[in-house]
Design brief:
Elements lengths: L1 E6 L2 H12 L4 E6 L9 E2 L5 H10 L4 E4 L3 H4 L4 H8 L3 E2 L3 H8 L1 H10 L7 E4 L2 H8 L5 E5 L8 E4 L2 H13 L8 E4 L6 E9 L2 E4 L3 E3 L2 E3 L3 E4 L4 E5 L5 H21 L5 E11 L2 E8 L6 H5 L3 E3 L1 H9 L8 E3 L3 E8 L23 E4 L2 E4 L2 E4 L3 E9 L2 H12 L19
Parallel strand pairs: 1-2, 1-4, 2-3, 4-5
Antiparallel strand pairs: 6-9, 7-8, 7-9, 10-11, 10-16, 12-15, 13-14, 15-20, 16-17, 18-19, 20-24, 21-24, 22-23
Helix pairs in contact: 2-4, 5-6
Bound molecules: adenosine monophosphate and glycine.
Length: 414
């Protein structure tokens, strides 16, 4: 099959590796990276329209959306693919609004009685202050794509005022509204479902580590690591998640005629009142994908292609029962800044783990850093302990000046 994957990060490197392992395929990627180029041919394009033209001219048989921005760019990647007759594993623009607009997602959840925190959509600082009503902590969310930076959990008025200033006064994320949301407490879990019309398949649950520092301290990042296992969530909780969240969401997508096809990511908080949705994303998680992919067995390429055609075939996949731990190596200065050009050594010494590249580039025959999160080292094991030990041992073999790595990835419960 001729398959094109859209994106350039560690998630796409993991997806491409798994798609490639699932059969004899011709792989392409846009925009891709130097590391991805070792598995797939990079395709240049000037925007989604141009990309879909290229796919049509080159008889691409499946487009897999890794990164979300393309789904809502222009007419939408999946919408354009549909017009061109190319199966696309990723939702049309209307469905991708679940991620692109938090107000849209809230209204969807309210309409379909899906448990989530209460929220009010506000158009001004005054309205937001009145919605907060001096209740702290409060959660403020910019109503649009903000590369993971549009959410602030504010412990007091000063923190809330700072974020309100960024949203309304300086329009840091663009012009848009703001959600004032109820603060929820409990462990977080990421659930991924492959959705195609009214069918779905739940993948292995995962958890990511968002903050830069040990013990979950310091500023938020794109993700410093992840752990994935079927055993991460007990049987009863997973059944509740499926009944109260996954099923009504899939039914809601059908009822609203959103024609959803692709991965759907449920960011959940396991509160005392049961699991609640904190966000939907219309794609796989990063770095959860890097942890989950090694656990997926079977023909992923055919699974995505059939799903994209509206014929989900869960029987094509199986999930390893063990554990998978993904340790991220970030560059000097991350997350405030990131340093590029540092020489990476030790990659060839990693024997018992997969290495996915997120922010690297090839300088001659040498790999150098090229972004905030540089690499993800992923190892598996029958037990959590085995996967944790192996992932950290293998990650320690890879070094570059200023490298940052959390040593509690996979270990810490929260
Ligand atoms: P989001 O971008 O919506 O996933 O939010 C980023 C992070 O903010 C989440 O992973 C949570 O840790 C936190 N968060 C979001 N919504 C809430 C909420 N209602 N209550 C408490 N924490 C939240
Ligand atoms: N791991 C968080 C995300 O992909 O949004």
């Amino acid at each position: 099959m001729k398959i094109l994957v859209v994106g350039k990060g560690g998630r796409e490197h993991a997806l491409i590796r798994s798609l490639g392992d699932s059969g004899e395929h011709d792989l392409f990627c846009h925009p891709g990276s130097d590391a991805i180029a070792e598995l797939a041919t990079r395709v240049e394009a000037d925007g989604v329209e141009d990309l879909v033209e290229w796919m049509k001219a080159n008889a691409i048989e499946l487009c897999v959306a890794g990164e979300e921005s393309y789904l809502v760019a222009g007419e939408g990647l999946a919408n354009l693919c549909e017009k061109a007759g190319i199966p696309c594993w990723g939702p049309p623009k209307e469905g991708a609004m679940l991620e692109a607009s938090k107000a849209f997602a809230k209204e969807f959840m309210k309409r379909h009685e899906i448990p989530t925190g209460g929220a009010r959509v506000c158009d001004s600082i005054d309205e937001a202050r009145s919605a907060i009503a001096d209740r702290y902590p409060t959660v403020l969310k910019y109503d649009g794509l903000a590369a993971g930076k549009g959410v602030a959990v504010c412990g007091d008025e000063e923190a809330a005022d700072e974020f309100l200033g960024e949203v309304f006064a300086s329009a840091k994320f663009g012009t848009g509204r703001l959600l004032v949301e109820e603060y929820l407490e409990g462990p977080e879990v990421s659930i991924f479902a492959a959705v195609s019309g009214d069918d779905y398949l739940i993948f292995t649950p995962a958890r990511d580590y968002k903050r830069i520092g040990e013990g979950d301290a310091g500023p938020n990042t794109g993700g410093m690591g992840a752990v994935a296992s079927r055993q991460l969530v007990d049987e009863a909780t997973l059944a509740t998640i499926e009944e109260t969240i996954v099923k009504p969401t899939v039914a809601g997508l059908v009822a609203d005629e959103l024609n959803y096809r692709g991965f759907l990511y449920f960011g959940l908080m396991l509160t005392e009142d049961g699991p609640k949705v904190i966000e939907y994303n219309c794609r796989f998680g990063d770095p959860e994908c890097q942890a989950v992919m090694p656990l997926v067995k079977g023909d992923l390429a055919t699974f995505c292609a059939e799903g994209a055609r509206g014929q989900l075939q869960p029987g094509l996949l199986e999930f390893d029962e063990g554990w998978s731990v993904c340790v991220v190596l970030a560059s000097a200065g991350y997350p405030e800044t990131s340093r590029s050009g540092d020489v990476i050594s030790g990659l060839e010494d990693v024997k018992d783990a997969r290495v996915y590249h997120a922010g690297t580039k090839k300088d001659g025959i040498t790999w150098v850093t090229n972004g905030g999160r540089v690499l993800a080292v992923v190892a598996g094991g029958a037990s959590r302990e085995e996967a944790v030990t192996k992932a950290h041992q293998e990650a320690a073999k890879v070094t570059f000046p200023g490298s940052q790595r959390r040593s509690d990835i996979g270990i810490m419960h929260f």
